[in-house]
Amino acid sequence: MPEISTLTAAQIADMVSGELQGNPSAIVRDVSSVAQSRPETLCFLSDVRELKQLEQSSASVVLLPTGCTCAGIKTAIAATIAVADPFAAFMQIIPHFRQIRNHVAEGIAPTAIIDPTAQLGSGVSVGHYARIGAGCQIGPGCRIHSGVSIAEDVVLGRNVILYPGVVLYAGCRLGDRVIVHANAVLGADGFGYRFQSGEFRKLPHYGRVVLEDDVEIGASTTIDRGMIEDTVIGRGTKIDNQVMIGHNCQVGQHNIIVSQVGLAGSVTTGDYCRFGGQVGIADHVQIGAKSSLVAQAGVFRDIPAGETMGGSPAVPMSEQKKIALATMKLPELRQTVRQLQKQLEQLEARVCSPTPGAAEKQAA
């Protein structure tokens, strides 16, 4: 990563309004993690319980929580800077040393295909071989990377970013500052069929996909259009890579949806919901606001607001922990059952077998 600038510990402390201890002239040329620190780098530590890690650190300067020092720790660190939020301060400093290199070139590439009826706002950039269909409205500052395919009548708000290979079917609506990562597909027909006369007949889908402001969609994620109404992703929701959102879903605001989650058709989620990896939700289920579903949860019924659920079928985590503990003891339990079964067989044999001499007494 090329060098952007060089800073001293004193300069960094001033930039983040931190309390400096140690050498104010310590040089920082890059950033690093604590585990893979290098000389002349800045790192951060948010958890005071992990201070021992600094004994192995080669960094020059470290950001620490307020009130925390390296006193009593043998370390090569030349200076510490105490701040209320070390991670936030670290993120503030990173742009001075690192560049994000995935920008599309400014302007319209000569190989881009743009329908004459499409309207492009000021400052729009379109990469090579991107296509923009008839009747589209592209807001100011949008960045459309190479190979993007935008069908007819799509509307993009301000400062939308579409990375290479994104496909937007006709009629999609994206709000301001939406980010869609590579090869995501928005607006494909929902998986809707009706079994009739011995065959599955396709149901036409007339709805759209609507992403509200500040939504981010991960790479290779797919969101299907609604059959009649729109599929809607609420403001500020962040969706990871390889997620499937079925037709007619209504996802609330500020949801977090991790990789490989699947929402069947017509699922509704409240605001501020969290979904761990590989969660699966059956069709027409309603997820209450501020609910959390842990990884691989299978949801077949409505979830009340504020619940944390796990397992398949999903149950409250207090129950799921008991189920998990019991499952771990199954081999031991199986062995116990075998022993009890053997003892029972022995007892039955003793009870059912005739007592020695009993036959002779009966004959007499």
Give an overview of the whole structure.
- The chain is an alpha/beta fold and 364 residues long.
- The protein contains 5 helices and 39 strands.
- It folds into 2 domains: 90 residues, MurE/MurF, N-terminal domain (Udp-n-acetylmuramoylalanyl-d-glutamate--2,6- Diaminopimelate Ligase, Chain: A, domain 1, 3-Layer(aba) Sandwich), CATH 3.40.1390.10; 204 residues, Hexapeptide repeat proteins (UDP N-Acetylglucosamine Acyltransferase, domain 1, 3 Solenoid), CATH 2.160.10.
- Strands 10-13-16-19-24-27-30-33-36-38-39 form an 11-stranded mixed β-sheet. Strands 8-11-14-17-20-25-28-31-34-37 form a 10-stranded parallel β-sheet, with no helix packed on it. A 7-stranded parallel β-sheet has the order 9-12-15-18-23-26-29, with no helix packed on it.
Please summarize what this structure is:
With 364 residues, this protein is α/β, with parallel strands linked by helices. Helices cover 16% and strands 27% of the residues. The strands form 7 sheets. The protein has an 11-stranded mixed beta sheet.
Overall tally of structural domains: 2
Determine the number of helices (DSSP H or I, runs of at least 4 residues).
5
CATH superfamily of the largest domain: Hexapeptide repeat proteins
CATH architectural group of the largest domain = 3 Solenoid
CATH topology of the largest domain: UDP N-Acetylglucosamine Acyltransferase, domain 1
* CATH class category name of the largest domain: Mainly Beta
DSSP helix fraction: 10-25%
Strand-pairing-aware structural class: alpha/beta
Uncertain runs are none
Total count of strands: 39
Radius of gyration: 31 Å
Q: Describe the largest sheet.
A: 11 strands, mixed
Distance between the termini: 105 Å
| Shape field | flat
**DSSP strand content:** 25-35%
